[in-house]
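Colleagues,

Please find the record for the two-part complex below.
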Amino acid sequence: MPLAFAQEGAIVRVLQIRAGRGLARRLRELGIFENQLLRVVKSRGPGPTIVEILSSNANQRCFTYTFTSCPYRRIGGRVLLGFGISMKIFVEEVRNA
Amino acid sequence: MSVVNDVKLERTKIALAGIPNVGKSLIFNRLTGGRAWVGNWPGVTVEKKVGRLKIKDNELEVIDLPGIYSLTAYSIDELIARNFIVEERPDVVVCILNAANLERSLYLAISLLELGANLVLDLNMIDIAENEGYEIDYKKLQSTLKIPVVPTIATEGYGINELKEAILSATRKRYINIEVVNYGIDVEKEIKRLKSLLNELAPKLCQKYPPRWVAIKLLEGDEDILSKVSKLPYGSKILREVEKSKSLLEEKVEDLESYITECRYRKALEIAQQVLRRVKEPEVTITDLLDFVLTHRVLGMPIALSIMYLLFRFSFEVSTPLVDMIDISMNTWLHDWLLGLSILPEFLRSFLADGIITGIGSVLVFLPVIALFFLGFALLEDVGYMARMAFIVDKIFHKFDLPGKAVIPLIIGFGCNVPAVMATRTIEDENERKVAALIAPLSSCNARLPVYIVIASAVLKAYAGAAILSLYALGILLALVMGWFFRKVVFKGPSTGFILELPPYLLPRFSNVLLKTWERTKRFLFKAGTVILLGVIVVWILSVSGPKGYLGPGALENPEILEQSWVGVLGHALASIFAPIGWDWRACAALLFGFIAKETVVGTMGVLYGVSEERITEAVMQSFTSLTGYAYMAFVLTYVPCLATIAMIRNELGLKYALLALVYEVILAYLIALSIVGIGHLIGLR
C-alpha cells in the first residue's frame, strides 16, 4: 500500500519507490529506500505524512510517542513528505499501531 | 588601501557545509563573531555568507553555505552550495555533523570525501544526542574516516577553540580520503577502467576534480558532470565508454544509480553503528510530546490560529505605551518646536516640521509594534514551530495545487515581503517556485499595518481588530486563489510534492532571537530612513508646488490651495478612475505614493490632510465611510507591496515576472475594492 494510507504509529517497511529519478534519489539520500523501516508519526490522508527513519538494530530500544517500546532506534529527525510523494512510496506494515 | 587588499586577495578559504538544521549559521557566528542569519528551519541561509576567522596571526575567510544533503543539486539553495564546493574548491571544508542525526550527516561527509575535499568534521549537538541516550566515540570516527573530528555544542560555545585549531592545522596538512566507499568488485572494476580512460583523454578535467569522483558521477548519471564531459574533445568517446560500463553493470545490479547511492548510505549506516553507543534508555522526548499536540489532526489548526492571534495581540498590547511616547515626542514636541523656530525661513520650517517630521513620525510610531511582532515571530521560529505550520496547512494548500512549503514564504511575508520572495528558493520545482514568489507579496506585511490601524480605528471603531484580522485572512485567501490560478493557467505541470525535514523543538536561544529581531527591525528602520524619507520629501515638494509654480507652505493648511498643487492634480486624475469606489482625491494621491512603500501612505495622508497622527483619525472619519474605508484597506493589501519587493522579484525571476506581479496586483486590487463596495451597497451597507 502507499505510505499515505499507512496508519499513524505503525512501523512500515519500504517495498518500492515509484518515482522519477530525481525524486527517488532525493528520498534515498534522506535514507528512504527499499527495505528501510519507517515509523509513521503523522498521517493525514489525503495530506502530508511525517515519518521517522528507523534503524533495525534490535539490541537498541526506543519509545514511541504512544509510550510503547519498540525494538528499533530512530535515525535522526523527522521528515515531512507531501501527499503526492507519500503516494509514490509503497510499504508493508511490520508492526501496527 | 586597495593595494594592501590586493596582496591578500588569495586568502585561505574555509567553507562550512552541513545538512539543514545542523547549526551551521551558529557555528559560523561562533567562528567569526559575525552576524549571519540564524534560523531553525530549512533554507534560512539562502545566500552564501562570508566572514573572517582570526586564529593566532592567521586570517581565514569563512563561507557559510546553505544546508545540503548531498552533492546532487535539486533546489537553487543546494545548487549554490554544490557549485561553491565543486567549482571554487575551498582550501578546507568543515562538515558539520548533527550528532543526533548522525547517519544522514555522514552521508554528506562521505560525499565530500569522495570529491577529494580537505575535510574537518565538526560533531555538533552532542548534548542532544546525549539526551537521547547516545554517546558518540568521536576518536573511533576519526580513525575510521582518517580525518579530524571535533565534538562541539555550538549553542554553548563548547569545543569552538578546538575546532579553530583543527581548521588551522588542516590548512597546513591536507586530510583526504577519496576511496572511503567500496562499491563492490564489479563496480570498482568499471570505476578503475573509466578512471584511467579519463586520465588519458581528459587530463584537464582530472586536474580539477579527482578522476575517481568524475567516474562515479558519470556512472550515477550526474547531469552537470555529463554535460561537462560532453563538451570535451574526446567527450563522446568517454560517454560511449560510460554507457558500456553502465549496461554491463545493470545486468548485475538492477538500478546502478540507486545502487551507488545505497552503497554510500550503507557506509554511513555502518560507520554510525560502529561509533554510536547507547548509554541509557531514552526518555520520551519533548519533541514527541509537543508534536503529538501541535500537529494533532483536530487540534493542530486551532492551535496554529491561536498562536498567530496571540502574536498579533502581543505586538499591539505591549507596544501601546511606547507608541504614545514616540507620538508625543515626535508629532507634538518636535513638530511644534520646529515650527516655532523663528530663525529659520518659513518654507524651511514647514519642510522640516510638516514634511520630514510628520512623515517620519507617522511611520516611527509603528516601530514598537513591528519590533515586537518580529520578536514574537523569532521566538516561534527558533523554537521550531514554524516548520510544523507547513505540515498543518499542507492539506489546504494541496487543494490549490501549491506545495505546503509555500506557506513558509507566506508566513515570512507577514513580517516583510522582501525576504519572503527570497525564501521561495527552497522550493525545488521551478514552476511552483515562480508561483510562490508571485503570490508572496499578497501576504500582508507589517508595512501595511500602519495603514490598517489608522483607517480601521477611524471608521470601524470597535470592529477595528476584527477588520484587520480579516484583511490578513483575505491576503492569504487571495494568495491561494491566485496561486491556483497561476498553476492552472500559466505554470501548468504536475505537483511534485515536497519534502521538509522537521527540526527538533529547541529552547529558544535568547541572543539568537534578539539578533533576528534586530536584523528584521533594522530593515524597517532603514526603509523608513531612505525610501520613506525620500517619498515624504517628494510629497511635500509636490504639495507646495503646482502647475502654477510655488504655492508656499500655506498649501498644507489650506485645502483649497492644496488642490492647486501637483498632488491635487494627480489625486484628482486618479479620483476619477476610482470614482465608482468613492475615495476622495487625497486618498487616491496617497495610494500613488504607496507604490514606493506602504508606510508612506500614512505619511502622505499626514501631509495631505495637514494633520499629525492623532488628528489623522478625524480627517479619515470625514472622508471615508466604513465601506469605502474597508475597500481602501483591501486595495492597500493587494496592490504592489513596495518597490523593494518588485525589485526582489526581478532579481529572482527576471523583469518579465516583476512586471507580471506589478500588473496583476494592481488589477486584482481594483477588482477587489470595487466588489467590496459593490456587494456592500447591495446588502445595504454604507
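Residues 125 and 658 of chain B are 42 Å apart (CA to CA).

Comments are welcome before we finalize the supplementary table.
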